[in-house]
Structure formats: structure tokens, C-alpha cells
Amino acid sequence: FVDLLNERLTGNFDGDEFAAYVEASRNFDLNPKLRLAPLASLQYTYLTLDSYTETGGASALTFDEQTQESIRGSLGARLTQRIAESTGDFYADLQVRGRWVHEFGDDRSSVESAFVSDPTVVFTVRDGKTSRDSAILGTGLSAQLNEHAKVYVDYDARLNSDETVQVISASLQYRW
């Protein structure tokens, strides 16, 4: 970090996000231990960041309100195989899944700002267009330990021409 102007700029901003998700699927038992579930989903996300102004020096900026809207549709399937079970409540399932996701909403965002000391100097920074189509591939293992406890371990990857995002997750569910 090189501080050429000897300034310490600060700003306080706020924002809101609204999101909704709906999915429809149907299970088809291919045999007593193998289940196929085709699915379709729709996800809506709206993000707004309030305008704000930095303080603390001549290079302080003022930022306009920013909004971003995402509408994603997907088609895919889950294949679940029962790999272990015993008398009582214990069982374990292995799942593989895949889906195609298409972004119908904004495929790029921008930030417009101006210098507080001279608001006529306005500039806009735009990011590059992002790919509208992605593949999401994953696998997971779940185990019902008893009537109250279930554990999950999952791996998912979102792949497109712009990026690869990988997620590993684990959870414990306990119901009483």
C-alpha cells in the first residue's frame, strides 16, 4: 500500500437483498435402492446498494445507488443410491447430481462515481460480461445415524467459461 496523498478515506453504506427460490422435482424409484429425481428450478435475487459519500480527503468519491438483478433457471437431476442400511434407523446414501443453469438477468454490473471536490468529473467502472450458462456438478454422502441425527458431506462445482467455483460442505442435523 502506497499512500501518495496521505489521506484516510471513510464511507458508510448500506444495502438490501431479496431472494426467492422454487424447485420442482419428482422421485422415480429405478430399483429399491436407486432413485432418480429430475428437477427444474427458478431463483430470483435483487440486490441494491444505497448511494454514499466518502470523507477524509481531496480524492473522496461519491457513489450512486447500485442495483443488480439475477433470474436463474435450471434443469437437472439427482441420482441417489442407498449404500448401507441396518436394522433400526441407520442408513447411508450416495448422491450424484448435475444441472444446467441459465442467467436471464443482468450479466454485468457497473459502479458510477464522482469526486466530491468536483462532481462534474464522473466515471463509470464496468465489469466484464459473465457467462450466462453454467454447469453445476456435485456429489454427496448422507447418513441417518439414528431417529434424531443425520450427517451430510457434499462437494459441488459450478463450471462455465469465466470461472470455476468449488464448494465442500458438511452439516449435522439434529431433530428433537
Walk me through the structure.
- It is a single chain.
- The protein is mainly β and 176 residues long.
- It has no helices and twelve strands.
- It has one domain (15-174): Autotransporter beta-domain (Lipocalin, Beta Barrel).
- The protein is elongated.
- It has strands at residues 15-25, 28-31, 34-49, 52-53, 61-63, 66-85, 91-103, 110-115, 122-126, 133-144, 149-159, 164-174.
- The strands form two sheets. Strands 1, 2, 3, 6, 7, 10, 11 and 12 form an eight-stranded antiparallel beta sheet that branches. Strands 4-5-8-9 form a four-stranded antiparallel beta sheet, with no helix packed on it.
- The N and C termini lie far apart (53 Å).
Précis, in short:
With 176 residues, the protein is mostly beta strands. The protein contains no helices and twelve strands. The chain has a single domain, classed as Lipocalin (Beta Barrel), CATH 2.40.128.130.
Salient structural properties:
176 residues, mainly beta, Lipocalin, 8-stranded antiparallel beta sheet, 4-stranded antiparallel beta sheet, elongated
How far from one another are the termini? 53 Å
**Mind telling me the CATH class?**
Mainly Beta
How many helical elements? 0
Pick out the low-confidence regions: none
And the CATH topology?
Lipocalin
**Helix and strand succession?**
EEEEEEEEEEEE
β-sheet strand percentage: over 45%
Give the integer mean of the pLDDT values. Answer: 93
Q: Largest sheet at a glance?
A: 8 strands, antiparallel
Q: Number of domains in the coordinates?
A: 1
CATH architecture: Beta Barrel
Coarse morphology? elongated
Helix content: under 10%
How many E-type strands?
A: 12
Secondary-structure-derived class: mainly beta
Gyration radius (Cα, Å) is 24 Å
CATH superfamily: Autotransporter beta-domain
